[in-house]
Design goal:
This protein is α/β, with parallel strands linked by helices. The chain has one domain: Transcription Regulator spoIIAA, CATH 3.30.750.200. Strands 2-3-4-5-6-7-9 form a 7-stranded parallel β-sheet, sandwiched between helices. It is globular, with a radius of gyration of 19 Å.
């Protein structure tokens, strides 16, 4: 049985020990698709508070939001303090429960290059100063990063492990418009290629089950993303949570979530055509609380992984 090349294996091979990502949620960060810069309301599947890191949502900066045009940041000291508190709490738990020895600080929630350069520089350098931190992973959108930030990250990458994570979601512009994404596929391709040219490691996020997409379209997106040279990939099924535009469509019956059978079929085929050197960070996603409207199979991740491995076993693979 061949083990799928995972991100954990990549990190262990490179650093010789257990390396864990520490998910961070910095208050004051938002998204150009939420603040009205490119669109309003966010992507149709996004409940704006749903991407909080595991430490919970901070309240003190709730009404304060940065963007690329912000001239000042009076709360930078509080953000730096928040960063340190979250890192200390999460890394301590990961060390105790999982034996973590080194860490990547993962700027996870919202769009983590969507702020003035000096704010980003201060946060990134603070994160890199923590004990046993070997690098950063920065979640962002392709329409929310500047050449200046890319150049800076490229310089950091000469000494540290620097990752940038882009939401690709789909290569079909009609799909991106339907989910109110706020940019087209060409924009994602452009910035992935620029990031690769700058020497950065790139992780691409793919969503299977987007409105109106066939399994053939989902596979075409995966195929194209691989061609762009992404180093790592996260696969997600589209699930519906309360307080989203997608929830309205789901309730009216105009959106039917992907079935587990179809999701696993597309996932397995995507893994079969994936380049050997592209490692996998995630094969599924879900949420086990009252906010989930559907599909119900996204509630139990352990069962999802079991069913995925059962399907992979038939082709000689294991996750």
């Amino acid at each position: 049985m061949e083990q799928i090349y995972t991100y954990g294996s990549y990190l262990k091979n490179k650093f010789g020990c257990k390396v864990y990502k520490v998910g961070i949620n910095i208050s004051g960060f938002t998204c150009p698709n939420i603040d009205g810069t490119v669109a309003k309301g966010g992507c149709t599947f996004c409940e704006n508070d749903s991407f909080s890191a595991s430490t919970g949502k901070a309240q003190e900066l709730k009404s304060f939001h940065l963007n690329l045009s912000s001239k000042e940041n009076p709360y930078l000291d509080k953000q730096l303090e928040q960063l340190e508190l979250q890192f200390n709490a999460i890394s301590k738990r990961q060390t105790k429960e999982y034996g973590a020895e080194k860490f990547l600080v993962y700027f996870q929630s919202f769009t983590n290059t969507y702020a003035p350069f000096e704010t980003l520089k201060a946060l990134y350098e603070k994160a890199l100063s923590f004990p046993n931190v070997v690098g950063l992973s920065i979640g962002t959108r392709s329409d929310s990063i500047t050449e200046e930030t890319l150049e800076y990250l490229s310089a950091l990458g000469k000494e540290k492990e620097i990752w940038i994570e882009f939401g690709i979601q789909s290569i079909y512009d009609e799909t991106l418009q339907r989910i109110n994404r706020g940019h087209d596929s060409a924009n994602v391709k452009e910035w992935i290629l620029k990031s690769k040219e700058a020497g950065l490691n790139v992780c691409g996020h793919l969503i299977f089950g987007l409105p109106g997409e066939t399994k053939e379209m989902m596979l075409a997106t995966a195929t194209e993303a691989y061609k762009w040279g992404i180093d790592s990939v996260k696969y997600h099924p589209l699930y519906v949570v309360k307080k989203t535009a997608l929830a309205n469509d789901f309730t009216k019956g105009s959106f039917i979530p992907i079935s587990e059978e179809d999701y696993i079929d597309v996932l397995v085929k995507s893994l079969q055509i994936k380049p050997k050197n592209t490692h996998v960070q995630r094969v599924t996603a879900g949420i086990n609380n009252d906010s989930l409207l559907g599909p119900s199979w996204c509630r139990d991740k352990n069962t999802q992984i079991k069913n995925i491995n059962q399907a992979l076993k038939s082709i000689g693979l294991k996750y």
